[in-house]
Automatic annotation (TrEMBL):
This is Fucosyltransferase. Keywords: Glycosyltransferase, Golgi apparatus, Membrane, Transferase, Transmembrane. Gene3D superfamilies: Glycosyl transferase family 10, C-terminal domain (3.40.50.11660). Residues 5-95 form the Fucosyltransferase C-terminal domain. One of its GO terms (cellular component) is Golgi cisterna membrane. The keyword Glycosyltransferase applies.
């Protein structure tokens, strides 16, 4: 698949601000390879995961707000607002990308 190549992921980030890293299972204290790839992509990954107890670089990802296991319209609106703010503030966006890169992502 295209995402297996780190080079390809970095090319991807030249066109896209965010990387959807939706997991098919959401477990506490567990990060899937999808989120790890997102951190390595030089884009900001958007995750469904419950990141309780998992240490990730600050501002390096966005979490889809989930209410009692379900994604709500309010949660999507909140996520969209966060994305808009980051796209309007390139410096803040780059802080998130840089914090993931500086830590080496999760690989």
């Amino acid at each position: 698949m295209w995402y297996r190549s780190l080079e390809c992921l970095r090319e991807f980030s030249k066109q896209y601000w965010f990387y959807l890293s939706f997991e098919n299972a959401v477990c506490e204290d567990y990060v899937t390879e999808k989120l790890a790839r997102g951190l390595d992509s030089h884009s900001i990954p958007i995750s469904l995961a419950n990141q309780t107890g998992v240490r990730l670089p600050p501002r390096s990802y966005l979490k889809v707000p989930v209410d009692t296991g379900k994604i709500t319209d309010e949660g999507i609106a909140e996520l969209a607002q966060q994305m808009k703010q980051l796209m309007a503030d390139r410096e803040e966006y780059m802080r998130g990308v840089t914090s993931a890169s500086a830590s080496g992502g999760l690989t």
